[in-house]
Amino acid sequence: MAVSSSSVLFLCLLSLAQPLHSLSASPYLFPSTLFDNYEKMLTTFRIYMYTPQKPFTFTTPPLSLFHTSLLNSPFLTQNADEAHLFYIPFPPDLSTRSRARLVRHLRISYPYWNRTLGADHFFMAPGGVASSSDRNAVELKKNSVQISIFPTASGDFIPHKDITLPPVNPSPLALVQGPGNDTASHLGFMVWDGKLLEYNYLVNEMKRDPEFRIESEPSDHVDLVKDSKFCLFLYGGEMTWMVEAMALGCVPVVLVDRPVQDFPLTDVLRWSDMGLLVRTRGGLKRLKAVLNGVGGDRYQQMRELGVAASRHLVWNLEPQPYDAFHMVMYQL
User: Is Glycosyltransferase given among the entry's keywords (predicted)?
Assistant: First the structure.
């Protein structure tokens, strides 16, 4: 798992904890209620976990960290009658038919599913679950909260019900450095793994433009991230370093030709004020026009909000206040 020790990640969290009252705007959708509700959550919120039918492990880092953190947290209760939500753990590779059987078992063996038809239940699936005609699978898909990994395909994600987990940063030590200076040498920086071939033309255009830097590995180019105004991400491509980019003061730009509704903590953070969505169909000319159109004051505010928000997207082996685990719990 690409995670450093908990002490290192806690240092990362502390380095990102910019006093929020110093910002000209808030990174939160509802700042007046967030902190009071967060404190109430810590003392009152309870989750009951059904016993898995067979032992299994999550191999994907964000799911593994969330599952392990929940098992070791005070949120978990053995008394189902005091639970606010019910967690259904099952292996990531469980078939649709087997998921339907599992829901049918819960319906018959426990009184909790039928009370809300699964609306107070949640489950984890790395890429989300697909639709099905089976009644039990339909209720799981449409009613229960799905926790998947960002990004999740639109057909497998229901906005304002489902939740995505922030990616685990590939080089958490970089977060300790904090944001770079206010003057950047490059307009944009991108990590290109060459997998999304439909974007080859746009990437090749950027490679030929001296205002852009295109590299293959994010972890070896912290200085380039800090020396760039914008960090570019192809939706569905290499996005694991987006939190690192925000923490280092590089405004994220997601290149995508449709709306994005599955950002992590999308019901908590004001993503529209921290980053940009830019269509790829206009090529490099349109991309540069959009980026150059972000004025100085607006850019500085986006940068500051991104740095402040990034502390809530950091994973720790031992959860810390307001980190990714606790903020996902808050969104639940």
Answer: yes
